[in-house]
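Q: Convert this sequence to structure tokens.
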Amino acid sequence: MSDRLPVFPLSTVLFPGLVLPLHIFEERYRALVRELVAKSEETPHEFGVVTFRHGSEVTPDPGEDTAVTAPPIGADDLYEVGCTAELRHVTELPDGRFDIMTVGRRRFRVLSVEQGAEPYLTARVEWLPEEDEPSPAAQLFAPRVLTAFRVYLELLRPNSEGLDQVPDDPTVLSHLVAATAQLTVEERQMLLAAPDTADRLRAELRLLNREVGLLAKVRAVPVPLADLARPASPN
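A:
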């Protein structure tokens, strides 16, 4: 069974439980925010976030007529798996723009992209299953990933206060590592599409070991390690 969902294409990858702030200036997405705000409390206030395959979304000047300048977007332009963003806080600016705070909620697979009567893009999606409880394999991988992630963070940002705030829940940990490690968009997308927590943690352990090895090799270079790390994808 599929559902129809409004979608917001971005150059970043959203994961369940992670915070995503957005500045909304295009009229089509202002309309979406207004519709979401007007929904009843019983209805999910969420939209889909899907990632552009080519790394950067079209960002027209706020003063331009976006209905004319923005090219059409098709399924081939987007990755297949996305995550819904649940609206948590909305600030409307005097000129009609919005600053919103969202949190990733649930993963989906895009079946088709549609441009209907709404000004914004919609898609037919199917929801990806989530585990009620982490599997024994996930429980086994979690402490190993947590250890590798702590080593990685210490190399990347020595004496960081965030080292004491890393969760040990396998699923939460898997999403946090995927979202915060300085990986490529393709690697993040691969992790989002992983069928379960154990597969995601297994892939993250491999990626973290690779990154730790690279960072350890450049420790003697007299520049900040943060300048040498692979840059994260911008929102």
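Residues 55-70, 228-235 have pLDDT under 50 and may be disordered.
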